[in-house]
Amino acid sequence: MKKIVIALIALIAFSACEKTNYVDSPPQLQFTVLDENGVLVEDASVTLFTTYDAWYNIEDSEENMIATTDSTGTCLFTDLQEVYYFFNVEKGEELTNSTSNSSMEKPLQKGVITNISVILKYD
C-alpha cells in the first residue's frame, strides 16, 4: 500500500511540473506623452529614426516608424533592433518636444520593454 501511495504522490508531483522555455523577444519601446501640465496627450505622433542624420534633417524615410498615442497617452513600438533610436514627438503645431536631446541613453535590449516619457511644450 505504501508503494502505491508513494507512486501516486510522485505521479501528481511530476504532472504538476510545467516546462517553461525562455524566448528572446525583439526589443520594444513604449512612449508615454504628457503636456507641460502633466496631462496625458492622446493622438500625439511619435516618429522613430534609425540614424542621427535622419532625425536631424527630419527626413521622411521608409525606415522611419510612426505611431500615435492612445487615450492613455502611450504607444508601443515592437520588433525593434538592438540599436540607439532617435525620436520626435508632436501633436499638431502647438505641442512639440523641441529639444536637442531626442535620443536614447543606451541601445535597446532583447526581451526588454524600454519606457520613455516625453513632455511636450506649447509653442
From TrEMBL:
Signal sequence interval, chain numbering: 1-18
Keywords, in A-Z order: Signal
Top-rank taxon, per record: Bacteria
Name the record gives this protein: Prealbumin-like fold domain-containing protein
Provenance organism: Paralabilibaculum antarcticum
